[in-house]
Specification:
By secondary structure, this protein is an alpha+beta fold. The protein has one domain. It is built from three helices and seven strands; from the N terminus they run E-H-E-E-E-E-E-E-H-H. It has a seven-stranded antiparallel β-sheet.
Length: 167
């Protein structure tokens, strides 16, 4: 997607002192946290000086999910739906969203049970290779979502295939 095979992560720590490096274990433990406190994945092209990440990935717990809209032909240009998880779509070459079934509770077990996990990937247009497609974004998001489902112990419920089928 970035026209390279060399990438880097955001160095340093966040305001709470946690490493900015992404891990599925930490992201799973922060699903119920505010967006500013969740462990998000920011991938940069190695050596890039723009300060813009190639992709940003975020996972969050969700009480609701969008309804599957299907391919009725009435979607705006650039919107593509995929038959994976409970709801999956890309918006041209800039974003992908994927909901899958995976009941979770906030850390400590005292929080509300949420039935879904939402994965979101944003691809910065100024960093993306001209050859990159929306499907490329969905392949990356599906792969990370499969890892998240495995981390959370809900692989069978998540309905995330090893390969993203054609839309």
């Amino acid at each position: 997607m970035g026209g390279t095979d060399k990438f880097s992560e955001l160095p340093g720590t966040d305001d709470a002192g946690h490493s900015n490096k992404f891990s599925l274990k930490r992201a799973a433990s922060t699903l119920h946290d505010d967006v500013t406190e969740r462990n998000q994945c920011d991938v940069f092209i190695a050596g890039d000086k723009t300060g813009h990440s190639l992709i940003e990935v975020d996972f969050s717990a969700a009480k609701d999910r969008p309804k599957t809209e299907g391919s009725s032909g009435g979607e705006p240009a650039g919107i593509t739906f995929y038959p994976i998880g409970l709801y999956a779509k890309t918006n041209a070459r800039t974003s992908a969203i994927l909901y899958f079934k995976c009941p979770t509770r906030a850390a400590g077990g005292g929080g509300e049970l949420t039935p879904y996990v939402r994965g979101y990937l944003y691809g910065a247009p100024d960093q993306m290779s001209p050859k990159a497609t929306g499907r490329d974004l969905m392949v990356v998001l599906n792969s990370l979502s499969r890892g998240m489902a495995r981390q959370l112990g809900c692989t069978s419920q998540a309905a995330l295939p090893a390969q993203v089928p054609k839309a």
